Amino acid sequence: MSGRLVHIGSAVVDYVYRIDALPAPGMEKTASSYAQVAGGGFNMMVAATRTGMKVVFGGQLGSGPNGDFLRAAFAAEGIETLTPPSPVMDSGNCVAMISGDAERTFVSWPGAESVLSLEMMAPVSVTQGDWVFASGYTLSYPGSRDALTDWIEALPEQTPFVFDPTPVISDIPRPVLSRVLARTTWLSCNTTEAADIAGPGDVEVLAARLLAEHCPKADGVVIRAGAKGCHVRLADGSARTIPGFKVAAVDTNGAGDTHIGAFVSALSRGVRPFEAARHANAAAALSVTRHGGSSAPTDAEIQTFLSHAAASGGRNQEAHLTA
């Protein structure tokens, strides 16, 4: 495999509480478990690196205990950080509450990851064969969006750029979002985010409109569609809904990140887009059977899962997949 994934995004520390259900306003719940884990963009990076892609991080980490925690997590996964830590801020955090139905609710506090400048990003160089990824979280922060948008627009024309708008898409100013979409090579979003960009319509209409009106230079768009798996439309007009896999989900946190990381990793090694999407569906399905947002499987685990699915004659093709 040639090239790397250059991740220009945000990584935070997740404080994860498992509860039976969200408390009513003014009430309190006692969690059945608690964990402190690396989260945010870390989940996507883990998915890519565990499936064989070299990953480097070009965002900013903090200089306090959260930043130290994240640097240790990065090192454990072999992810190099290209930029120096913020001299004045620690990394941010996110409280994640995982309810009994495996769904999740978040409250986040931004830190060093929310501040980017072109000067700070100077050490982040992109070479031939690299892929670049950014998410809507970094574009939602007033202290990072302008520098990141300028940096994305200055990327070499041949460098593939992958964008995930994320659930905070409404916090991204439309002119900024339009500039980033105009440079996007692959857009991966869920159905809600697709409709937020392109307006109402079914998934086929949304995918076509995203390519025609918002991502004119894109090779394709991926719309993650819950139990339906994902819908992929390519610039040549071909489109396919790739079914997911039925699994017993215990934690959906990070499933979308896993899907994107596995998809990009597969594309980078020459897998064709529809097959890469099936690979990503399998990765996401495996991830939701495990606790934690950075629960992405290895490529060997994905191949084993797909072999078992094929042997079952397609009976596992209706899925609880990604959000």
UniProtKB/TrEMBL annotation:
It comes from the Bacteria. Residues 5-295 form the Carbohydrate kinase PfkB domain. Keywords: Kinase, Transferase. Transmembrane segments: none annotated. PANTHER family: RIBOKINASE, SUGAR KINASE. This is PfkB family carbohydrate kinase. GO terms for molecular function: kinase activity. Signal peptide: none annotated.
